[in-house]
């Protein structure tokens, strides 16, 4: 894939600067990363770091496998076919409630970037959330972050997850087709899909966490989203490898701080544009502020996530969760210092 002159100069500068940061020997250089819906803006920092060669610059040989949603990529980690997941932070809390310990070690998103919209065709008379009872709601994959956000919003209206039917539709063209063909009545999904449906008049947005303001309104505080996480034991045994991964992601976050829309278009694969470059760029401008600046997860945000999950999932008991074990900022802080993010 062609890399912009600007991107090349950034990458070249990083390569030249590398000796200043003598890196400890990596415990593991070949890594399998699982992600659920890689084309979504939710995971843009992962794609940027991959496309601009930042993983390779850290001595990593990374193979990224794309799944239909975050729940599937988590299954890959638990099943042993992935070393690390690029997924939603809240999975670390959910699993601890089941006495399984996974840990976030670099943050990519500081807002969930998930919007919920009702079909203007199937639900033309929509008035309140109660109207969703008995309806089919599209999510990236059952159990994924898009599903969790929908559960939270439904709970606020007194609806339980069992009051609706969740349908896995992915995060790309399949999601667009499912809504437009009338297979589903509403959708909880990420951009660029939601902006494309919104701008074409296919959905009416009823809940929006694509901006920091919208996230504050839905959750009452900051809500960490996309991150890299893995087994806590993996972090303990492979600190240099985790540092290299955090470096690559924070390098990508730093690039994104000043990248223009044309830089993004030239760097991501054409398939990610879903056939509409202008709408893709409109989506990017909408979610840009939701991207983490430095990879560090805010402590307040972890508390917001726990409170949100405990509000609709009886298995998550707030007083039984040790939030300190769900994340570490050690690697992100070192990467932030290195790249001046």
TrEMBL record:
<dbReference type="GO" id="GO:0042597">
    <property type="term" value="C:periplasmic space"/>
</dbReference>
<keyword id="KW-0732">Signal</keyword>
<protein>
    <submittedName>
        <fullName>Transporter substrate-binding domain-containing protein</fullName>
    </submittedName>
</protein>
<dbReference type="Pfam" id="PF09084">
    <property type="entry name" value="NMT1"/>
</dbReference>
<dbReference type="InterPro" id="IPR001638">
    <property type="entry name" value="Solute-binding_3/MltF_N"/>
</dbReference>
<comment type="similarity">
    <text>Belongs to the bacterial solute-binding protein SsuA/TauA family.</text>
</comment>
<dbReference type="InterPro" id="IPR015168">
    <property type="entry name" value="SsuA/THI5"/>
</dbReference>
<dbReference type="GO" id="GO:0042918">
    <property type="term" value="P:alkanesulfonate transmembrane transport"/>
</dbReference>
<feature type="domain" description="Solute-binding protein family 3/N-terminal">
    <location>
        <begin position="30"/>
        <end position="259"/>
    </location>
</feature>
<feature type="signal peptide">
    <location>
        <begin position="1"/>
        <end position="22"/>
    </location>
</feature>
């Amino acid at each position: 894939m062609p890399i912009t002159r600007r991107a090349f100069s950034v990458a070249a500068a990083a390569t030249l600067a590398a000796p200043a940061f003598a890196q400890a020997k990596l415990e593991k250089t070949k890594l399998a990363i699982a992600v659920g819906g890689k084309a979504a803006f939710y995971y843009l920092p992962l794609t940027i770091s991959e496309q601009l060669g930042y993983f390779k610059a850290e001595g990593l040989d990374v193979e990224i496998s794309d799944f239909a949603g975050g729940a599937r990529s988590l299954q890959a980690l638990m099943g042993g076919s992935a070393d690390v997941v690029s997924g939603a932070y809240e999975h670390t809390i959910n699993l601890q409630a089941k006495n399984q310990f996974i840990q976030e070690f670099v943050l990519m998103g500081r807002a969930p970037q998930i919007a919920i919209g009702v079909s203007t065709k199937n639900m033309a008379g929509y008035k309140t959330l109660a109207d969703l009872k008995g309806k089919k709601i599209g999510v990236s994959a059952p159990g994924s972050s898009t599903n969790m956000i929908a559960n939270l919003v439904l709970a606020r209206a007194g609806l339980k997850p069992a009051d609706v039917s969740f349908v896995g539709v992915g995060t790309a063209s399949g999601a667009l087709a499912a809504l437009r063909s009338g297979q589903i009545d509403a959708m909880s999904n990420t951009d660029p899909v939601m902006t494309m449906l919104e701008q074409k008049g296919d959905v009416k947005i009823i809940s929006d966490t694509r901006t920091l303001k919208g996230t504050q309104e839905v959750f009452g505080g900051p809500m960490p989203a996309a991150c890299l996480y893995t087994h806590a034991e993996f972090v303990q045994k492979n600190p240099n490898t985790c540092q290299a991964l955090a470096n690559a992601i924070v390098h990508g976050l730093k690039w994104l701080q000043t990248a223009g829309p044309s830089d993004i278009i030239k760097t991501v694969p054409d398939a990610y544009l879903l056939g509409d470059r202008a709408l893709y760029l409109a989506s990017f401008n909408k979610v840009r502020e939701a991207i983490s600046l430095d990879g560090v997860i805010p402590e307040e945000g972890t508390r917001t996530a726990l409170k949100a999950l405990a509000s609709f999932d009886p298995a998550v008991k707030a007083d039984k969760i040790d939030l300190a074990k769900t994340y570490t900022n050690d690697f992100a802080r070192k990467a932030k210092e290195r790249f001046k993010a």
